[in-house]
Amino acid sequence: MGGLEVRELECFLVLAEELHFGRTGERLYLSQSRVSQLLRALESRIGARLVERTSRRVRLTPLGEQFLARARPAYEELRAAVADTTAAARGVRGLLRLGFQGSANDQLMAAIARFGERWPGCTTEVVEIPLADPFGPLYRQEVDAAVVLLPVDEPDLVLGPIFSRQQQTLAVSVRHPFASRASVVAEDLADCALIGIKEPAPAYWREFQAPAHTPAGAPVPPGPLVSTLQEGLTLAAAGRGAMLLCQPTAEHHRRAALAYLPVTGLPESSLGLVWRREHETPAIRAFAEALGEIAARADRAHRAVPRRLVEPAPA
């Protein structure tokens, strides 16, 4: 293949899905500059541009579209061959214990189904983990991998596929002054007590889920602290405070006593699969691959309405 590097091809295929250098780097655990280098190397090898990059968008050239149509099936077949042979050599079997926070959303369940079809010799066990202890079950070896709310900044944890990037949702009592609104903005949080999360969750993680200040710096009144999601929803329904949720959790835990309002102006809420670096197994890697495929498919569906990247052109 003229010295073609598989990493160059992987980079192009992921970029063709994301149309975003930052998200491509996240999925491949690369910097944006490295993504640009790999793409330039592939384009130099081929002798033509595959991707158009401007200050406002990224899109495939006509030649890039043609290359994608032929390269993706070939790559998927090659990857399947490697995965099947690896499984035969190492064995993806036994029990894989998966933790989740809030709700086991559709993408997670679809990944479990795909993993089960691909590796029937490995059984999955799904366990809810405490809201206030996102990483403890991993350290106590109660689960092998866990789907948790981001961010994750633990040096000995591996962050795998990131998915379900969505606008945050504010749960308030139907008696709350905000309840009649269609949405709220981040600065409105200065006018309501925000339910927080207890330790042992790390401080940086608790701050993201219940910020102490609005983006403009206004203080957010602290509400009660909770250990579980159900405690938080119950207190919100009782009017003791408002609670920020990721959208899948909000959709799964609908209550007549609560109103759910999208919040603009806050960073998106995201979920990620994490596991301990020292306890990584073929089964964990295989599940991460299945979840990554499902997440990429969901992202493509979410972006089905024509939309182009807005980001600075890579150097």
From TrEMBL:
Residues 4-61 form the HTH lysR-type domain. Keywords: DNA-binding, Transcription, Transcription regulation. InterPro entries: LysR_HTH_N, LysR_subst-bd, WH-like_DNA-bd_sf, WH_DNA-bd_sf. The keyword Transcription regulation applies. One of its GO terms (molecular function) is DNA binding. Belongs to the LysR transcriptional regulatory family. It comes from Amycolatopsis albispora. The keyword DNA-binding applies. GO terms for cellular component: protein-DNA complex. This is Transcriptional regulator.
